[in-house]
Design brief:
By secondary structure, the protein is of the alpha+beta class. The protein folds into two domains: 152 residues, Helix Hairpins (Orthogonal Bundle); 124 residues, Distorted Sandwich (Glucose Permease (Domain IIA)). Strands 1, 2, 4, 5, 6, 7, 9 and 10 form an eight-stranded antiparallel beta sheet that branches. It has a two-stranded antiparallel sheet with strand order 3-8. Strand 5 and strand 6 form a beta hairpin. The protein binds zinc ion.
Length: 387
């Protein structure tokens, strides 16, 4: 009875510990990530399309408003022309009236009475002349009054139109800022599309790869499917001369060479130099799962290998290597396999190997980059030093 209780406690403890230690990433999680980012992309594309429709609609309203402003301007100009015409007409009538008076006065002197005294053919003639002049000037006065009224009306109309124009200009300004706002929003969303597409591509690539390795949705990558070959003390096979092999089955990746930069103090790996083109061997048996220069931001060529140490995943990275990489993704390797040749690709000033290692989480294998970074270990935890 006591033994059973102990066993249960131990099992509970193991169960509690496992999720922390195990890299329990299923293929299904990658599939879900593809789905999630695909949905995100669709939403973004729909938002962009909606935004573009809105922009088109606002642009149309702006054009219509501009047309209204222009037609109002034409009306204002027409009214102004009318006002000027009336002004001219008034001046003309005024001049006419003056002329009539002048004519009357010049012909008759300054005094109508004198005309009568010195020259008028008759008093009737004089009265007639006076009344005609008066009628004409009266008529002109009437016309001028009407014209003045018309000017007043037109000025009022013009002021109303100017007011309308101001309102239209304000509306146009508002529409333009609205258009700018939507354009900014759209370009903001557009700016995030490439990264979403990148995420889809990244996870889709992994899904395709692990499916090709026989994994199904519920499989834990590297644990229940695509399990790397086990590293054992005798798993290295025939090893080339000059190789430094540890008791755990790991080896130093280069025959000879020297350490040009050690692990730690911001350096995530160990730098080894031995001249350009020096063969680099896998530090232990495992499976190649990445080859290329697409992961590193500086474009360094690298080979990534996953190892199985008593069921626990350990990862090794060989960086700055030459572009001609002799291994392929999915290839099983051992300590006698040349995985790369020493180079100086990426952020590097000379030929060297940057060897980087992690536990539980591998870069672009399972989990995120940050999970990987947080699980980086000193290569000396596994790899024997020749010095
Ligand atoms: Zn380095």
């Amino acid at each position: 009875m006591k033994k059973k209780v102990k066993l249960i406690i131990v099992l509970v403890a193991i169960t509690l510990l496992l999720p922390i230690k195990a890299s329990a990433v299923t293929l299904g999680e990658y599939e879900a990530a593809v789905e999630k980012y695909t949905k995100e992309l669709q939403e973004k594309e729909a938002k962009i399309a909606r935004g573009k429709e809105e922009i088109a609609a606002v642009k149309k309203t702006i054009a219509e408003t501009e047309e209204k402003i222009a037609s109002t301007e034409r009306e204002v100009e027409a009214l102004q022309a009318e006002i000027e015409r009336c002004d001219r007409e008034i001046k003309k009538k005024d001049a006419e009236s003056k002329k009539i008076m002048e004519y009357y006065q010049i012909e008759n002197g300054n005094n109508a009475y004198l005309e009568y005294v010195f020259g008028a053919t008759s008093i009737t003639d004089m009265i007639y002349r006076m009344s005609v002049a008066e009628q004409l000037t009266d008529y002109n006065d009437k016309v001028m009054k009407e014209l003045k009224q018309l000017i007043e009306t037109n000025k009022k109309k013009k002021a109303e139109l100017k007011q309308k124009q101001e309102e239209l200009n304000a509306l146009k300004k508002k529409l333009e800022s609205e258009k700018e706002r939507i354009e900014e929003e759209v370009s903001g969303v557009e700016g995030t599309v490439p990264s979403t597409k990148g995420q889809i591509e990244l996870y889709q690539k992994r899904v395709n790869y692990y499916r090709s390795r026989g994994c199904s949705s519920n499989d834990i990558i590297g644990v229940t499917c695509d399990v790397p070959p086990k590293v054992t003390p005798s798993s290295g096979g025939n090893v080339s001369a000059g190789a430094v092999i540890g008791e755990n089955g790991f080896r130093f990746p280069v025959n000879g060479g020297r350490i040009s930069w050690g692990y730690g103090g911001g350096h995530r790996g160990v730098d080894i130099t031995r001249g350009c083109g020096t063969p680099i061997y896998a530090v232990a048996p495992g499976t190649v799962y990445y080859v290329g220069n697409g992961l590193d931001v500086y474009g360094a060529y690298m080979v990534l290998v996953v190892h199985n140490v008593n069921g626990q995943l350990v990862f090794s990275q060989y960086a700055h290597v030459q572009p001609g990489i002799p291994v392929y993704v999915g290839q099983p390797v051992d300590t006698n396999t040349i995985v790369a040749y020493m180079g100086s690709t990426g952020y590097s000033t000379g030929c060297h190997l940057h060897l980087e290692m992690s536990r539980y989480y591998g870069w672009a294998y399972n989990g995120t980059y940050y999970q990987y970074i947080n699980n980086i270990i000193s290569p000396w935890n596994y790899v024997p030093s020749p010095y």
